[in-house]
What we know:
Shape: elongated
Largest sheet: 7 strands, mixed
Radius of gyration: 21 Å
Helix content: 10-25%
Structural class: alpha/beta
Amino acid sequence: xxxxxxxxxxxxAGLTAALYAARADLNPIVFEGLLAGGQLMITTDVENYPxxxxxxxxxxxxxxxxxxxxxxxxRLHQVDVTEVDFSTRPFRINVGAxxxxxxxxxxxxGASATWLGVPGEExxxxxGVSACATCDGFFFRDKELIVVGGGDTAMEEALFLxxxxxxxxxxxxxxxxxxxxxxxxxxxxSDQIExxxxxxxxxxxxxxxxxxxxxxxTVTGESSEMAIDGVFVAIxxxxxxxxxxxxxxxxxNGYLIIADSGGTRTSVEGVFAAGxxxxxxxxxxxxxxxxxCMAAIDAERWLAHQE
Length: 307
């Protein structure tokens, strides 16, 4: 089965790319993945996506994305791509036993937060447990929060949360931060931020909302309880790029490298990237959608040039 354009991934980036590609008469096919919809599928209230002044549930927003892409002729398949070959043209994409060929490919497989993996975390995600201060900080005005992590991201999250929270405690497993000196200094200088050294979260408590955590001292092994209103996990993100190892250029953290500054072209001509799979800085639905639009336009122009 030969396709002019294949899109791998179905979050805001992939479905926006599909919308633009379909309207450009490229007749795109989207392999959504078995877990279709991206990170918004595990997000409750989305209040910072333009056009929804009253907010919208994450899964509902993604349903709107899908309906709009389908309206213009996008074909959606909720299956996982199992193998790709970008070494020759047309490109080969395998979905189990089925093989597709494509003139161009847009990769929008996204990234996911690295979670703690402790009891209570999954149950309370979206109910006081978050991996995005920019997304959810507004909901915690005058609350007491913890940020788990010791790198620059954790410091950025903690400092951002001081705009809303009454107090932020940074919980770090060691006795010194991994963050850059300037970010560490900013966090330590804040009157609203406290440091909890040599500590890990072993359990998150709460029925419908987070009410507290259990902390373990990594030196003594002693456990203690801490009442808290929210837990922000900032121990890293992992891009979904295992499929592209040795096929495309990745950076040291596994993100796809964009070959043209300000564009979406990867290291292989005809293969484009959109969304969090190539973005370790912003990681927002609106920026993912924006790069999805860019990737579709880049793919359309590249295909026209080939013809």
